[in-house]
Write a structure and sequence with these properties.
The structure is a homodimer. The first copy, chain A, is 40% helix and 18% strand. In chain A, helix 1 runs parallel beside helix 4.
Chain lengths: 222, 222
């Protein structure tokens, strides 16, 4: 459908401009923006809940929840931990965009925040194309999804700044060749920092928390 | 972005017309078209391989492989079982559409086929909107993805004709409330036929194979 391409390009340009404005607004307030990307059920909410539990006594966090439907399952879990959560219902759209994030930013008191975590819609394709204005894109891969995902969804692996390999507690029960997986990742995104962990058991979470804390401290003092 | 809506509507109308033409072409040749939908890593290819192994000695199957990248990992696995496989590289697009399927149909000898299985792109959102001309839409849910997926991705659950609940061998190792999951499914798609199974161990596959065989026989004699 070549006739639609100019429209798509215009949307992306407009989106990039809004994303830059969002980023500037976060930086004015010394807030680190973190965009969490994954397929459905890889553990986005679980990682965010674990991160809140580890950090919310020392740092001011908030969460922007992207969902394609109106259910507030995830936002409710986050609010229950005493952290501000704003839900964006994309109305069936398959990704967040910078305009949605811009509208949501108005609902947070950015001056007191250290880090805003954005939970994107569960999708490995469309989310890769839309900048939001966050500083760090974190992709969660999940062991039971299989070891071939970098080869099949290369675009999203190319564009991220950190990789969580979640559900490592399931490694004994599913076929997953870690070398093959990492070879694929390395070809797409050489040197990408990665954190094998389990949000279920807590194994490996400390390294992710330390790394994220350093990124937040850099943004706060920058 | 309201200005884009008319374009999207036109695309969908054009797609529906092509989908109807694809379906008529399959029916002229008494071929059952089956569209397999799931998030990345839920087990689309594994289910197709299991289905081929069970049925290819009695029935003529073929597979149309949708991928967002040029890798032929899945198509190669299917070809290795001696079944015709055609790959569609969507060039980063997040779903198959009827035009892509139309082009691929020309590459099969439909007269000798009983069933064409389409493996859609791994995506729970965008794939729900585009009819392909297949007769049956089958959604694969996966136990490690969690029990809240019907609540979070309602559109795709509403539009399918059968549900596979894959990776039941992982039930002892992950939190998954089957009652909560099934309550969500029932609210969206009352009476939906479902097949709990494991493509890894083979458990539960017989019921899926029997059901699919009956659908193929109906289409062949219809």
């Amino acid at each position: 459908m070549p006739r639609t391409i100019p429209v798509v390009e215009n949307i992306l340009n407009a989106n990039d401009q809004l994303a830059a404005a969002n980023q500037a607004r976060l930086e004015t307030n010394r807030v680190l923006g973190v965009n969490i990307l994954a397929s459905p059920g890889a553990g986005k909410t679980s990682l965010i809940l674990r991160t809140i539990t580890a950090l919310s006594s020392q740092l001011h966090l908030a969460v922007l929840e992207g969902d394609t439907a109106s259910v507030t399952i995830d936002a409710d879990k986050i609010s229950a931990l005493g952290v501000p959560a704003v839900q964006i219902n994309t109305g069936g759209q398959c990704h967040l965009d910078a305009k949605m994030v811009q509208a949501a930013l108005a609902q947070f008191d950015l001056k007191i925040l250290d880090c805003l975590i954005v939970e994107n819609v569960g999708n490995l394709i469309c989310t890769a194309d839309f900048r939001l204005g966050t500083h760090i894109n974190v992709l969660i891969a999940s062991i039971p999804e299989g070891d071939d995902k970098p080869y099949k969804y290369p675009a999203i692996y190319r564009g991220v700044d950190a990789l969580i390999i979640n559900k490592i507690d399931l490694l004994p029960y599913v076929p997953f060749n870690l070398d093959y997986f990492q070879l694929g990742v390395e070809a797409l995104n050489p040197g990408l920092v990665s954190f094998p962990l389990s949000c279920q058991t807590g194994e490996g979470l400390d390294k992710w928390i330390s790394w994220l804390t350093r990124q937040i401290q850099k943004a706060n003092s920058g």
